[in-house]
Specification:
ABC transporter transmembrane region fold, Rossmann fold, six-stranded mixed beta sheet, membrane, alpha+beta, binds adenosine-5'-triphosphate, repeat, ATP binding
């Protein structure tokens, strides 16, 4: 796939724009020269200026424009020659794209998510083997020895460009301000040079960026931005295999966010499928797209749509606030002029009092407007954050189970907190500021020119360079902030895992290593933050000096104009106030642009999750409007988990579960029994085949409706950090049950006795994940849940497997009662033969297939795997009994359990 097309087009476009800008620039200067000839004598040189070059012509303007047209392109070419890096060579099969490209042009059309076929497809086309082999290009000996890197050269060129343009602008500003024009064309033509200079600098910089853009590797299914081979990443971890990167070897790194991929993973054909923390649905990985400032701003505003009336009120008040603010400097100037005596030495006292009154009135009105509008904006922004957090949490919960299989919960928490905060920061603090400052900027600009175009010309020469510096900083800061967010997410993930497994951490004494890992992740964030702080400080210092210099120039020239009677003191003060107003507004806007650019980094992650519609969409499918009987069928079901596509878990599995029957699933560990239970709950859809309920395919039904007919007791019941009663009634709608129902359910589940013995009874809090109750008690609470819920289909996934013999007996009794009293369809995964013997149907599952199925008696007659197990069990029991009789021992319950254990019997086969 070629990358020359779009790039060449953009280069041509920028080149043409630059050609036109330089042409117009020279044209304007030439026009100015002609106009001085034409109107010779119609302007006066302002001779008191120290910058008066005794030059009655503006020929230097023309010379400088030609100088710019020659030197700026030369500098750009020089920068592109020595500033471009080509760090590695790529084999023909790799997709190479430009740095910063979102790679859209490189993608096949419509390829936004991996289809099920894609899952088995390697990272790159297998035909293009050797696939992703990248080798660092040995740099030329001259380059390797050189201490000056290409980015150093590029930076040098940018600095020279910046210094040249600033110097020329200041010189031109001084020249223009030293003239007293009497025709209007000449000042307009000369003032325009500032615009052309800034435009040409901007486009030359863009051209240089384009020309020096590094070739990156774009792997849309692995990462949303191109990655670049880089050395010295010893403190980084590969985001795919989670191993530490070897510094000497280097790794692929994204320049826009903190994504690293080790060389080994870059060669993995399944990297696109099995990587962690990718955006994925049930059918596979989704492509995440980058978010530009414009998109971010547009979407943030569209989220505020619901706040329309309040926003209109705020905007109206804001407009009034700005208008009143624009009038104030005018009255300040007037008041100052009133205290200067007129030619006859008289003071206009009544005029003075009148102006002070008006000034006071405007100020009071401005204060009132500002109080109300800022309160309204605060309200809007707080409601916005509230809505976004709620909606994002809803979106996260609606994601496919497959998404959670590949994502750490700490990272998701980070999206809900850090990313949303970062994304909302500028909107929360500065939506109003953005508008008021834009108002003040335009208003201040107009008033400045109205008051004095010459002072304005002088003042505005530094605006371009300041903009240039802030723009550079904003881009840099955006990258650092992306890295910071990613490191925080990593830190959150480490912390949340360590905290949720705190007992394991303590038992294994791994506190120090967890703390070190957490420190490292936060250290990365700190390093990025420190760099950002330095960049901000430097940019602020440079722009402040430029600003101060302009202030001094205004005072000096303004003072000279006042002394020469060209301007009154009041007018100079008014100009200065307008200039300050405009300058402050401009600087605030710059800060806002920077923070918007920075916040787009947070928005990128939030929006990608926001836009990710799950494949098993809760909004899809028909509502269940018939009386569900609970007959289920697996028809030729194939399934493999996304994160392990090589492991075919179910292959061509057929199983019919009759309504109201009890079906036991037995088989070797890893055979696919739990996967069947997950598919019954529609956590995953089959890769091939179908699952039906009462003859209707699962995929045609609303998933929430479907799940409401199930009750589950799983291997590892995790309770919520709530009371016992709340845990038993979890998932029940208020008003559909009473406290007595809860107690009845607990009694049926053999849980009432131990609950009663607790100090707070049913109001006892069970701790996080039910850590304050025993395993057997947890299971009985889970069984009580099912008793209360009275589902049509009950799923029991080895509910007693992790318990000791005593607890097992209690739980088993509760389960037996559940099975016999409920008229539900029951599917139970069993590890003990005794659990399934009474089932209506027993299915022996192995390697994702049903090996044999039937009742206990039927299977015993079949003489297959199940019959062998039963015979083995009988034989073992006889041996044990004989042994016990010989030794004169009592029956050992643990030994009895081991005889019953299907896994052990299978292993003994
Ligand atoms: N979320 C997952 N992602 C990837 N592979 C998985 C996942 N869950 C299970 N597996 C794999 O799928 C296969 C079937 O697992 P399953 O849990 O269904 O087996 P099982 O028969 O219930 O085993 P056991 O009796 O030990 O619980 C196993 O090889 C397992 O490693």
């Amino acid at each position: 796939m070629g990358n020359g097309g779009p790039r060449a087009t953009s280069l041509k476009l920028i080149g043409s724009i630059l050609f036109i800008i330089h042409l117009v620039d020279i044209g304007c200067s030439y026009g100015a020269v002609l106009s001085t000839d034409t109107f010779n004598g119609s302007y006066d040189e302002y001779t008191s200026s120290p910058f008066d070059l005794s030059n009655r012509s503006v020929f230097d303007f023309l010379l400088l424009s030609i100088f710019r047209a020659v030197t700026f392109p030369l500098l750009t070419l020089l920068g592109s020659k020595y500033g471009a890096e080509v760090p590695f060579s790529l084999c023909v099969c790799c997709k190479v794209v430009d740095e910063d490209s979102d790679g859209e042009n490189e993608l096949d059309s419509g390829d936004t998510s991996a289809s099920s076929e894609d899952l088995s497809r390697p990272l790159l086309d297998p035909l293009s083997k050797p696939s992703l082999l990248l080798s660092p290009t040995p740099s030329s000996p001259r380059r390797r020895r050189s201490r000056f890197t290409p980015s150093f050269f590029k930076g040098l060129v940018l600095i020279v460009l910046f210094l040249m343009s600033t110097t020329i602008q200041v010189y031109l500003g001084l020249r223009v301000s030293s003239y007293n024009f009497s025709n209007t064309l000449l000042p307009v033509l000369l003032c325009l040079s500032v615009l052309w200079i800034n435009l040409s600098v901007y486009f030359h910089r863009t051209l240089l960026d384009e020309l020096t853009r590094q070739k990156g590797l774009f792997l849309p299914k692995v990462h949303r931005h191109p990655v670049f081979l880089q050395k010295g990443l010893a403190f980084h971890w590969c985001d795919l295999c989670k191993t530490r990167i070897k510094g000497m070897q280097g790794a692929f790194r994204c320049k826009l966010c903190d994504f690293d991929m080790c060389i080994k993973c870059s060669k993995r054909e399944d990297a696109a499928v099995v990587s962690e923390n990718m955006l994925r649905g049930d059918k596979g990985v989704r492509t995440e797209s980058a978010v530009s400032n414009g998109t971010y701003f547009g979407r943030a505003l569209s989220m505020a749509k619901g706040e329309g009336p309040l926003l209109v009120l705020s905007f109206t008040l804001l407009a009034l606030y700005c208008l009143s603010g624009l009038y104030l400097p005018n009255y300040q100037g007037k008041i100052i002029d009133r205290v200067v005596p007129d030619d006859s030495g008289e003071y206009d006292k009544s005029g003075f009092i009148g102006d002070v009154k008006i000034y006071l009135f405007i100020m009071l009105a401005q204060g009132a407007f500002s109080t109300v509008y800022s309160a309204a904006f605060q309200l809007v922004s707080r409601r916005l954050v509230f809505n976004i957090r709620n909606e994002l949490f809803r979106k996260i919960l609606s994601q496919d189970v497959a998404y959670f299989d590949g994502t750490e919960s700490g990272r998701l928490l980070s999206r809900l907190t850090n990313d949303v905060d970062m994304m909302m920061q500028p909107i929360q603090s500065s939506l109003s500021s953005l508008i008021s400052n834009a108002f003040m900027l335009v208003g201040g600009l107009v008033f400045c020119y109205v008051k004095s175009y010459r002072l304005s010309m002088l003042a505005f020469v530094t605006v371009g360079p300041i903009m240039y510096l802030w723009d550079l900083y904003a881009q840099w800061s955006k990258r650092l902030n992306r890295q910071m967010l990613a490191s925080w997410a990593e830190g959150n993930s480490i912390a949340s895992q360590a905290l949720s497994h705190i007992r394991t951490v303590k038992a294994f004494g791994t506190e120090t290593s967890e703390i070190t890992a957490y420190n490292e992740a936060n250290g990365e964030a700190l390093r990025a933050g420190v760099k950002d702080a330095w960049g901000n400080g430097l940019t602020t210092a440079l722009t402040s000096y430029l600003d101060l210099g302009t202030g001094v120039l205004i005072l000096y020239y303004g003072g000279t104009l006042v002394m020469d009677g060209e301007m009154s003191v009041g007018e100079l003060v008014t100009f200065q106030l307008y200039w300050n107003m405009m300058n402050n507004a401009y600087q605030n806007l710059q800060g806002l642009v920077t923070s918007f650019t920075r916040s787009a980094a947070g928005a990128e992650k939030v929006f990608s999750l926001w836009d990710n519609t799950p494949d098993i969409d809760p909004n899809d499918g028909a509502a269940i409007n018939w009386d569900v009987e609970g007959e289920i069928e697996f028809k030729s079901v194939d399934y493999f988990y996304q994160m392990r596509p090589d492991n075919m878990v179910l292959s061509g599995l057929d199983l019919k579960i009759k309504k109201g029957s009890v079906v036991g699933l037995v088989g070797r560990s890893g055979g696919g029994k739990t996967t069947l239970i997950k598919m019954l709950l529609r956590f995953y859809d089959p890769k091939a085949g179908a699952v039906t309920i009462d003859g209707r395919p699962y995929t045609s039904l609303k998933v929430d409706d479907l799940r409401s007919y199930f009750g589950v007791v799983s291997q590892d019941t995790e309770l919520f950090s709530k009371t016992v009663a709340e845990n038993i009634s979890y998932g029940m709608k208020p008003g559909t049950y009473t406290h007595e129902d809860v107690i009845e359910a607990a009694k049926a589940a053999q849980a009432h006795e131990f609950i009663k013995e607790m100090k707070d009874g049913y109001d006892t809090r069970v701790g996080e994940r039910g850590s304050r109750v025993s395993g057997g008690q947890r299971q009985r609470i889970a069984i009580a849940r099912v008793f209360l819920r009275k589902p049509k289909i009950i799923l029991l996934d080895e509910a007693t497997s992790a318990l000791d013999e005593n607890s097992q007996t209690l739980v088993q009794e509760a389960l037996d009662l559940l099975i016999t009293t409920s008229k539900a369809t029951v599917v139970l995964v069993a590890h003990r033969l005794s659990t399934v013997m009474n089932a209506d149907k027993i299915a022996v599952i192995d390697k994702g297939k049903v090996l044999e199925q039937g009742s206990h008696d039927e299977l015993c007659k079949l003489n297959g795997v199940y019959a062998t197990l039963v015979n083995k069990q009988k034989k073992k029991r006889e041996n044990e009994l004989n042994q016990e009789a010989a030794d004169g021992q009592k029956q050992n319950p643990n030994r009895t359990a081991s005889i019953d254990d299907i896994d052990k019997l299978l292993d003994a086969r």
